[in-house]
Specification:
Elements: H1 4-17, E1 43-48, H2 52-61, E2 67-73, H3 77-87, E3 94-95, E4 111-114, H4 121-130, E5 134-137, H5 145-158, E6 162-164, H6 172-182, E7 189-197, H7 210-213, H8 217-233, E8 239-245, E9 259-265, E10 271-277, E11 283-290, E12 294-297, E13 308-310, E14 313-314, H9 322-336, H10 346-365, E15 369-370
Parallel strand pairs: 1-2, 1-4, 2-3, 4-5, 5-6, 7-10
Antiparallel strand pairs: 7-11, 8-9, 8-15, 9-10, 11-12, 12-13, 13-14
Helix pairs in contact: 2-9, 4-5, 5-10
The chain binds nicotinamide-adenine-dinucleotide.
Length: 373
């Protein structure tokens, strides 16, 4: 279990990773249209994993209109008590990791949001599906594409939906760049650059334990460049090359990558050049270049405010709390069958996992790896 010291060390690292986290208050401006009355269906969510990101989601959900935090799943009774009091969660909606399958008999919970270490997502999501509840899972959805596909299949078989916490897919600046690209305002896309990383703190945390993380920076933060390259370019890559650099073999053990650079090739001929790291700061930047214009986002995937500009000038979209907007939008997807501009389902996550598999394979072989997403 994490100590408070671990948490603070990680928070410090995250604040560097996401430069705007220190101005989080600015990111808590209510979501667009928040004052509009809403009397439609409300998604009733239980959060599994009451750690730092689970807490962030819980806080953000207090401002949701279409989603409500109603349950909690944790291995620590004291955390459950704390959440019960803080978020008005009834005892009957609290579970631990041994008994949460019983959520199947709880008519007051529609979905379980899995926010635990990466390697646990696979089994936990499959148990949620078997309990007949929709699953929302944090990124990376699994530690490889095979496990990811098993999760997709299990949810399909159980007749429940599987969504992944791709909060950027709802972020207004991001959606504006995607809208402009689709409208042809950048011409033909030729190049994407994604730089994502931060200096990680506490060497004992699960993110640096392959058994729990499934890898290193690529799993945790590099995935933003992978996923971002796909929604910014608007295509799925067909090949990848990758190179790893490791300066600290004690902190970053076998199978835990410190820094990886990777290149992606897309069917149109567009290419991407990306960097994922646990050993550099100020890396949270996207650049998209086309024959008719360009877009830059910096910060591009932190908690906000996201900032962007294009060849036409500054982007000036509303500043939102990502997780509030995400959960309201996911409510629309799960309860009203709405379709997001960029998919957030399990199949979308499997594509990212195939790229991750390809990157690790390319690092190992030193060769270009073909991808079939
Ligand atoms: P964290 O360490 O702060 O929290 C993890 C939680 O899982 C803790 O409450 C811990 O007690 C619990 N847990 C259950 N079983 C565990 C075990 N066997 N070992 C260790 N912890 C265990 O981590 P976090 O930062 O909240 O990350 C959780 C997930 O959320 C990860 O998959 C991460 O990639 C993802 N995440 C996503 C975002 C985002 O912006 N979408 C941001 C941060 C983290």
């Amino acid at each position: 279990m994490n100590t408070r010291r671990d948490f603070l060390q990680k928070l410090a690292a995250s604040a560097i990773a996401f430069p705007s986290i220190t101005s989080f208050a600015a990111a808590t401006v209510p979501v667009v249209g928040c004052n509009t009355p809403y009397d439609g269906p409300v998604l009733r969510v239980a959060i599994m994993g009451l750690g730092s990101y689970g807490t962030r989601v819980a806080e953000a959900m207090q401002s949701c209109k279409k989603a409500k935090l109603v349950g909690a799943i944790s291995g620590t009774p004291a955390k459950l008590k704390n959440w019960q009091a803080k978020y008005n969660i009834p005892e009957k909606n609290c579970y631990n990791y041994e008994n949460f399958d019983a959520v199947r008999n709880n008519p007051d919970i529609d979905a379980v949001y899995v926010i635990t270490p990466n390697a646990l997502h696979h089994d936990q999501v499959i148990r949620v599906a078997k309990a007949g509840k929709h699953a929302i899972c944090e990124k990376p959805m699994a530690v490889n594409a095979k496990e990811g596909q098993e999760m997709v299949d299990a949810c399909k078989q159980a007749g429940v939906k599987l969504l992944v916490g791709y909060r950027m897919h709802f972020e207004p600046h991001t959606l504006e760049v995607i809208r402009m690209r689709k409208a042809g305002q950048f011409g033909t896309i030729r190049f994407f650059q994604g730089l994502t990383g931060f200096t990680i703190g506490d060497p004992t945390q699960w993110r640096l334990n392959k058994q729990l993380s499934g890898g290193g920076s690529l799993m945790d933060i590099g995935i933003y460049s992978i996923n971002g390259s796909r929604y910014m370019v608007g295509e799925d890559p067909v090949w990848v090359t990758a190179q790893e650099t490791k300066t600290d073999k004690v902190k970053f053990k076998e199978g835990v990558d410190e820094t990886i650079q990777f290149q992606l090739g897309f069917p149109s001929g567009a290419v991407a050049s990306c960097l994922s790291t646990y050993n550099m700061n100020n890396l949270d930047k996207f650049f998209l270049d086309g024959t008719g214009g360009w877009a830059e986002m910096w910060p591009s995937t932190g908690y906000g405010p996201i900032k962007g500009r294009t060849h036409l000038g500054e982007l000036n979209q509303p500043i939102v709390t990502h997780q509030t907007l995400q959960m309201d939008e996911m409510s629309g997807i799960l309860l009203a069958g709405e379709q997001p501009v960029v998919p957030v389902d399990g199949a979308e996550a499997v594509k990212d996992l195939k790229v991750i598999d390809g990157i690790y394979a390319s690092v190992a072989s030193g060769k270009r790896v073909d991808l079939q997403l």
